[in-house]
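This section describes the prediction task in plain terms. A model, or a person checking by hand, is given the sequence of a single protein chain and must write out its three-dimensional structure as a string of tokens. No templates, partner chains or ligands are provided. The sample shown here is typical of the held-out split.
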Amino acid sequence: MPNDGAPGHAVVTGSSSGIGLAIAQVLLAQGWQVSGFDLSAPTLDHAAFHAVRIDLCDGAALDRAARNLQGVTALVHAAGVLRVGPLGALQHDDARLMWQLHVEAAMRLADVLAPAMAAARSGRIVLVGSRVAQGKAGRSQYAASKAALVGLARSWAAELVAQGVTVNIVSPAATETAMLADPARQSQPPKLPPLGRLIRPQEIAALVAYLLSPAAAAITGQDIQICGGSSLAQ
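The expected answer:
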């Protein structure tokens, strides 16, 4: 994010659908340049949007794609997948997929992009986590991969705070996206929060956009929940 407060160049993963798409749309509306990283075909048509078709689980390809970018001032890692299963029926390929997509992709992108932000003494990183990171029956593998993001974000925040780079997590409750219709999770339908409805992708995007703004310069290392009241009983 430029020091003059003008929107900069954001990398958004998972930009073809769901939360990532909503984030890309909000940023474009605010005047950002957006590079969208997604395996799926782009669903945005905007002069300031550049689509990068890429398998985020392909580490070498991800490194190359990140190094080809110039002037990145923000990274938003929103790509995700959910696989569920109880003990005794865990699918280890599912665990590997979620770790690569949620954790390793974030590490590779930040490893390439964060040093330049630190050198410029200005930048933003936002990881999209989940309330499930706190633990939920039948979702241990997913929870583990999302909980790892908390450790990454807090460690990176401590490392980068003196260089003007903030790192935060946005952790929504069940969100109204295509992921909810994934046949892989039909045995465990989402539980509505006390709000009485699912979280909307646009609500998550609005918070992410704020965290990328100059006004959020003092917020770092935080795991911010959009829970619709789910955390009130804790």
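For orientation: The helical segments are 18-29, 59-67, 92-120, 140-160, 201-211.
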